[in-house]
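Example record for the data management plan.
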Amino acid sequence: MAGAMDVRISKHNTLGRLSVFELDALREAFKRSIRENNVTEIQWAEHAELFVKSAIGKESRTIQT
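Corresponding structural encoding:
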């Protein structure tokens, strides 16, 4: 994994590439979201799913404009 990784960024099967820095930013945003929303470890999986769906939605809107 030398710098970028394929990830799905829209519901239309469009593939994009995220850098290691972007992935780290997403990880940090997820951790912040967990703290701000008082998510317990048991709720992480459900919260992660909602977090990713939200991030994908925001990315799709950015691409369309």
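Summary line stored alongside the record: Strands lie at 4-8, 15-19.
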